[in-house]
Amino acid sequence: MAKEMTKIMVTGSAGQIGTELIKALRKKYDAPSVLATDIQPSETVDLPESGPFEFLDVTKKENIEAIVQKYRIDTIFHMAAILSATGEKKPRLAWDVNMTGTYNILEAAREHGMTRVFIPSSIAVFGPETPREHTPQETILRPKTMYGVTKVAGELLGNYYAERFGLDVRGCRFPGIISHEALPGGGTTDYAVAIFYEAVKNKKYSCFLKEDTRLPMMYMPDCLKAIFDLMEADSSRLKHHADFNVAAMSFTPGELAAEIKKHIPEFACEYKPDFRQTIAETWPMTIDDSAAKMEWRWQPDYDLAVMTKDMLSVLSVRWAEGRLNY
């Protein structure tokens, strides 16, 4: 059985996933026992005040050590990372944060006998040599971005710590994540978030990918579900560690725009591909997540139609109330 998580730390708490993960963790567990950390100062971070917050630069191991000891942390959700598009503009920063930060977290977890560590991976680990349809669990990993390089290395490092030191490291290769809480954060799949805001505000959107660029996507509730399901799974059932494929839906910008038009008939989308198109063309179109389904019974709840309806419903209310901060 999976050991109980009692003192939890989340790095990158102000990021797209981290923002909602903190809320979900504090709702599920004792809120004061869930520590939010981020490199952004507390006064600039929009996080619930239901639990503690600490400034943390994950590239500084001594900072991690001090916080782990202060709060007696036994579980880490390591969400701090530089994403794909930003990583191409600042490759050294992506290496420092994604690699040095991940190594520091794993070392702290090993040294302090952590119960469990979650480190998200990404479909960015794949490259042009990888099969793009039903991308297998075990396949060629030759990414063409610094973000992808760091995520492959992060998977290997997590698996190494699991096998070499017996550290319980778990992780998923997430597709693009769509959320109505966090704004786009520098990823190639961010069009699928921005398009909803622009549809509600301006009834039009200029997309940086081609109309027929199919990519795997996931709605935030399913992302959180995957994290919780994997972290709470019986370790004896897991044959993989830090590199589970997970899937929910796959669509193109054109298909998403058409779904939005069902709710906002006047919505118009134009397509002006930029450097992110090249990145997207090295990534899968659909994912085979049979290992996750078999080992921890993964099953998503949202498809394109249900997700679109929910996103527009939430954002439309905020826009009407003057609370759409985008």
What would you note in describing this structure?
There is one protein chain. The protein is α/β, with parallel strands linked by helices. It has two domains: 8-176 and 218-245, NAD(P)-binding Rossmann-like Domain (Rossmann fold), CATH 3.40.50; 181-217 and 250-284 and 303-320, UDP-galactose 4-epimerase, domain 1 (Alpha-Beta Complex). It is 41% helix and 14% strand. It is built from eleven helices and 14 strands. It has helices at 16-28, 61-71, 84-89, 91-111, 146-165, 191-202, 220-231, 253-261, 275-280, 290-296, 304-320, and strands spanning 8-11, 34-38, 53-55, 75-78, 116-118, 121-122, 169-170, 172-174, 176-178, 204-207, 215-219, 244-245, 249-251, 268-271. The strands form four sheets. Strands 3-2-1-4-5-7 form a six-stranded parallel sheet, with helices on both faces. Helix 1 (16-28) links the parallel strand 1 (8-11) and strand 2. Helix 2 runs parallel beside helix 4, helix 6 (191-202) runs parallel beside helix 8 (253-261) and helix 6 packs across helix 11.
List the helices and strands and how they pair.
Elements: E1 8-11, H1 16-28, E2 34-38, E3 53-55, H2 61-71, E4 75-78, H3 84-89, H4 91-111, E5 116-118, E6 121-122, H5 146-165, E7 169-170, E8 172-174, E9 176-178, H6 191-202, E10 204-207, E11 215-219, H7 220-231, E12 244-245, E13 249-251, H8 253-261, E14 268-271, H9 275-280, H10 290-296, H11 304-320
Parallel strand pairs: 1-2, 1-4, 2-3, 4-5, 5-7, 6-8, 8-12, 9-11, 10-14
Antiparallel strand pairs: 11-13
Helix pairs in contact: 2-4, 4-5, 6-8, 6-11
